Amino acid sequence: NSRSTMLTALEESFRRFAIHGDTRATGKDMHGKNWSKLCKDCGVIDGKNITLTDVDIVFSKVKKKTCRTITYDEFKVALGELARKKYKDKTGEEAEAEVFKLIEGKAPVIAGVTRAVASPTVSRLTDPTKFTGSHKERFDETGRGKGKAGRVDIVDTSGYVSGYKHRGTYEKKSSPAGTFLSDSK
């Protein structure tokens, strides 16, 4: 993939967000909806220094009056504005670098994996980031199921029927799984 070496990580992210949900988009400019999604997904919006309103205001400020989108350069200007607001104690350049770091290499968070699912209930059930407790162990960071590996700690593999009274007599946790199968029952 030699093309990506020509794009900076920031530009790469800009493009991913710019075309998100828009099949006709070229990736050269971004409309307000995706701009605010980018700020949300990448954690630029923190609810304290930066809110959705700030993000919207900056967007209208940097874009050309007649346009509904911002270019990559305007995008960087907008991020610079937000950066100074978000990291008040840093110099403009440091603040910008921090915000760029939040965004570099990121892609839009898509709830669930399939785009076809519209019902909120289903997408909630199929979105592994919403899983809690032992279920979240069954997925890796990308939300792919780990199959058996992720379940081993949940399923009781001791071979005993639960509640069996001699349980634990020769089950030494340190021995590899296969060893006690050869013991005569």
Automatic annotation (TrEMBL):
Entry superkingdom: Eukaryota
Compositionally biased spans, kind Basic and acidic residues: 134-150
InterPro entries hit by this protein: EF-hand-dom_pair, TPP/p25
One Gene Ontology molecular-function label: tubulin binding
GO cellular component term, pick one: microtubule
Keywords: Cytoplasm
Location in the cell: Cytoplasm
Region annotation (Disordered) ranges: 127-150, 166-185
GO biological process: microtubule bundle formation; microtubule polymerization; positive regulation of protein polymerization
Family statement: Belongs to the TPPP family.
Name recorded for this polypeptide: Tubulin polymerization promoting protein
Source organism of the structure: Oryzias sinensis (Chinese medaka)
Phylogenetic classification of the source organism: Eukaryota, Metazoa, Chordata, Craniata, Vertebrata
